[in-house]
Design a protein that fits this description.
Chains A, B: Belongs to the histidinol dehydrogenase family. Two copies of one chain form a homodimer. Chain A is an alpha/beta fold. Chain A has 17 helices and 14 strands.
Chain lengths: 428, 428
């Protein structure tokens, strides 16, 4: 772990930097596969599934029978846990519903805003060692609440040609309308162009490795929207002597086990706490099954001590962490002062894991400093706010002159004329 | 005008297509200028201002004296019009404020969502023949309402090295914190990297020509967010025999005068109305000062007649227009049925011009079919929704088991451990 004591402001730019990833090499591969999927459809999907996942699949659509089998095979204890998480996530995301907003800005001029669902959305769930059924909940629950008509889920098949049972159970539970055994670049390309089997969607959500990340970026060049640019997961903890070093260490490690490139930062104003956390991390690390991964991330992690909390807060806002844990006596200083963070966890008994799984907040959050300009996935991510207006005869008489003057001043005579014609018709 | 009667569904893909623009050639130019601005800062800004705008400017910062002069020189009539528009836009965007949303998903598990402003935003206002002071209102008003700390406005200087007076007046009125005489690719690059004079921002808003559009896309590769991908402006009118042909024609022409590439579409179920509108367009076109531009757009415009309103609505949702005017007897059929549109104008006395300038809704809207997955600029475009959670000892005891089971099932032991440690500490 790298210990930095009272860093000078000129060092902050370096300290807030994440490892830059070079996508240039990958981009060509991605564009090649996109082109092939666009031209050859399902044939290209099958080819690349065979190539990347090492399995030849006849039918990539998950059948009702497969779902039934999955539902039966998930242990009851896990089912209950998923159901409880679902209930919390649903409650929090339902509360985000906004009513139609309507005002009469002038007599006879009614304006309103209403949110309508994005009709077709695609959810990408990675395969691999950790079957992220929790991400299914985080994406499918708000999609269903928003009223999206088609909710397509793509996830790569394992070497038996199957998708993890808990993923299928969660997808079925949360109203996913179609599940496809296809992963990686070919899945994103499929949802971008549509094939005979994979539906075209308007917006793609979900995490993935660097290939999926680049593929999502390429998808935006073909008119699709994506949830957000993605990078390795991050956690920044601010803690003082009121924090419990063992808890802080466990949180840092829970982030570190995600991947060797995970970003783990401790900010503190107490050298004592800093040392205590360092020792605890070393101790707890030994016992982790994913020790090899976590150790690498910990190696690159930073423990930073600041002179005072004002400097600490400024630094944290400059870093803009994805996950931000506050374990200090004066919580409200950081709660009120944080401007740039994905999700904030407050107090000694609020581990990041709670938000990752079950408390109700979403775990799809902006990384890599994007908390400065993006928020995490929420109900609105699946909706578009449309505006409406209706102007009466009286209304156009009230507002007409203003429009005419402004249009004229911008040199847009036809804009003015659309109003003048109406005003004249009312003079007769 | 192209008349299409009862088009077959297989023709829809062609009918909804916008002219594709090739950005490949421009992209290299843009990237070159970005690199130069990143390396040389203000020197590159001055160089390209001189190159593209044909003027050597000593100080690109607009001074207080220049603003004072502008405020004094704008005619009172125009000032009053701008003030009335501001009041309406402010009222409608203020109404979009969302309160903090807080729920206790389980006893002791509190989750809330709060919106906080994007700290630094950049507004781009094009120069050229039409001085778009209305766009200043549409971007700066919500930015100020949201509480953005730095609101930077860039607009190219004219050949006297000045920015249009009405633009300065509007910017000053709406709380823009810094105005810079810099346009085009160099303005976007400046706000992306920051120079000695141009502040770095986190999100860039505003329209522009194809160079600015590509520059905004390139800015996203450097960590910035943008309001939305932009294309030529569009209007689709649905009208039946209850519509007034002269009004419909005036609306189509107000869109057409924007540029030769503007998209203008009439959808109807009445051949009679179709013919009447066609005649009116020809008649009104003759009198327009921007006739040459409008005529080109009208040449590519489409008048489409459908057998029934259900088909018409399906087509409109597939087209996903930026502006959508409903001039039919049964308004609610289209109002309730429209899923994909930027902004909707209802009835014979609601011209698009109203929303362009003064009714209160925003005029920065998704074009090119992006209404399927994006909304226009609104108050939320300047905010990030951050989530918070605080769990009590009781709370972690309630939710802990669920998190442990889920983390274990995903193979993330350290995630589980962060909970187990806390639960164990409470058992003692």
């Amino acid at each position: 772990m790298n210990k930095i004591i009272n860093p000078n402001v000129c060092e902050w730019a370096t300290l807030t930097q994440r490892p830059t990833q070079s996508f240039a090499a990958i981009e060509e591969t991605v564009k090649g596969i996109f082109k092939e999927v666009q031209q050859k459809g399902d044939r290209a999907i099958t080819k690349y599934t065979s190539f990347f996942d090492g399995i030849a699949i006849q039918n990539i659509k998950v059948s009702g029978a497969e779902i039934k089998e999955a539902v039966a095979s998930v242990p009851q204890e896990l089912k209950d846990a998923i159901l409880m998480a679902k209930s919390n996530i649903e409650a929090f995301h339902s509360a985000q519903k906004t009513e139609r907003i309507e005002i009469e800005t002038m007599e006879g001029v009614s304006c309103w805003q209403e949110k309508r669902p994005i009709q077709k959305v695609g959810l990408y769930i990675p395969g691999g060692s950790a079957p992220l059924f929790s991400t299914v909940l985080m994406l499918a629950i708000p999609a269903q609440l928003a009223g999206c008509k088609e909710i397509v889920l793509c996830s790569p098949p394992d070497n038996e040609g199957k998708i993890n049972q808990a993923i299928l159970f969660a997808a079925d539970l949360c109203g996913v309308t179609q599940i496809l055994k296809v992963g990686g670049i070919q899945a994103i390309a499929g949802m971008t162009f549509g094939t005979a089997t994979v539906p075209k969607v308007y917006k793609i959500f979900g995490p993935g490795n660097q290939f999926v990340t680049v593929a999502k970026q390429v998808a935006t060049q073909f008119g699709l929207a994506i949830d957000m640019p993605a990078g390795p997961s991050e956690l920044l903890v601010v803690a003082d002597d009121s924090a419990i070093a063992a808890f802080v260490a466990s949180d840092l490690l829970s982030q570190a086990e995600h991947g060797a490139d995970s970003q783990v930062v401790l900010v503190t104003t107490s050298l004592k706490l800093l040392s205590a956390v360092e020792k605890e991390v070393e101790k707890q690390l030994e016992k982790l099954p994913r020790k090899a991964i976590a150790a690498k991330a910990i190696q690159n992690s930073k423990l930073i001590c600041f002179e005072n909390k004002e400097l600490a807060l400024d630094f944290i806002n400059e870093y803009a962490p994805e996950h931000f844990i506050i374990a200090t006596k004066n919580e409200s200083f950081y709660v009120n002062g944080i401007q740039n963070a994905g999700s904030v966890f407050i107090g000694n008994y609020t581990p990041e894991s709670a938000g990752d799984y079950a408390s109700g907040t979403n775990h799809t959050l902006p990384t890599n400093g994007y908390a400065k300009n993006y928020n995490g996935v929420n109900l609105d991510s699946f909706l578009k706010a449309m505006t409406f207006q209706k102007i009466s005869k009286k209304g156009i008489q009230n507002i007409g002159k203003t429009i005419e003057i402004m249009a004229e001043a911008e040199g847009l005579q036809a804009h003015k004329n659309a109003v003048t014609l109406r005003l004249n018709s009312l003079k007769q």
